Structures are given as structure tokens and as C-alpha cells.
Amino acid sequence: MVNGRNKGASFEREMAQDLERELSKELYLELGQRITFKRDLEQYRASDHGDLIASDSDFPFILELKRYKDGPIGGQEAWWQQCVRAATAAKKLPCLIYKYDRKPVRFVIEVCAAYEAGYKFKYEPPESGRLEMDLPTFCWTARELM
Questions:
Q1: What is the average per-residue pLDDT within 119-146?
Q2: 102 three-class SS
Q3: What is the spatial distance between Cα 6 and Cα 78, in angstroms, rounded to a whole number?
Q4: Quick one: 107 exposed, middle or buried, by C-beta within 10 A (0-12, 13-18, 19+)?
Q5: What are the residues whose beta carbons fall under 8 Å from the beta carbon of 48, sequence distance 6 or more?
Q6: Domain ranges of the chain
Q7: How many Cβ atoms sit within 10 Å of the Cβ of residue 56?
């Protein structure tokens, strides 16, 4: 039997390393700075906390991570709502990061965040709606918003 808490914690550590590697290579070249992430252990004691905390206060997202065997494209609606509550409490943008077994990691953000980062849309984006992307695209978005 798989221990869900261990599976989630392992995924959080893995994503912290991947985000650090992807974000820091560009930020270091541009600004000479590195960004790190650590697990937020307050998430186990209180509600409305993200799973990873960035060392740079300018990092615009609250990160909620989920690791499951399978599920719907875009993640569960309850996961997104949990992410939105944590982001609202922290006055940041929500980002849901999820991974299903034998599938790539996916990042879900609000479409307005992508618009603010400079994505080119033919028409004004909807006020609500989400985009799903891979790690490099998410990191580009985060860097543009920083």
C-alpha cells in the first residue's frame, strides 16, 4: 500500500528542486540571484497555506501540489479551490501543480496571469478560466511576472 503523505512529500521535494533549477538558471544569468523553494510545514497545522514557499518574496504564485494515481485533466476542482483560497490569503496568484502516475507534471494557472505575463491573445482573455502548461512555460510566466 502506498503511503499518500510520503508520496506527496516526495513530490513536493522533487518539484522544489525542478523549480529551483529551471527558475534560477535564467534569473542568475539576468540578475545574479537564485531562487529556492522549501516545503511549508504550516500546511499540516493550518488551512489556506500553499505547499512550497519561494525564497524570493516577488515570486507571484502560491503553489499547491497534488500527486495521485489518476484523475481529470486540469486536476480536481476541489484542488483548484484549495489553491485559490491559499493564494487569496497570501495575496498571490494560484498555481496548481499536479502529477498522475506515468504522466508528465502539469501546472495550472489563471488565464489572466498568463495575459499579464505577456502571452499574446487575439482577443481579451476571459476574466475567469485556466491554462495548463509544462514546467518551462510556467517558469517563463513566473519570471515575466517577477
A1: 84
A2: coil
A3: 21
A4: buried
A5: 85, 86, 88, 89
A6: 4-140
A7: 15
- Give one DSSP letter per residue of 35-86, joined into a string: --EEE-GGGGTSSS--SEEESSTT--EEEEEEEES---TT--HHHHHHHHHH
At 107, list the grid cell.
501546472
Amino acid letter at 48? Answer: D
Q: What is the pLDDT of residue 42?
A: 61
As given in the structure block, the three cell numbers for residue 63 are: 503553489
CB 106 within 8 A of CB 68: no
pLDDT band at 93 (very low <50, low <70, confident <90, very high): very high
Q: How many CB atoms lie within 10 A of CB 105?
A: 17
What CATH number should be reported for the domain whose range is 4-140? 3.40.1350.10
H or E stretch at 94: strand 93-100
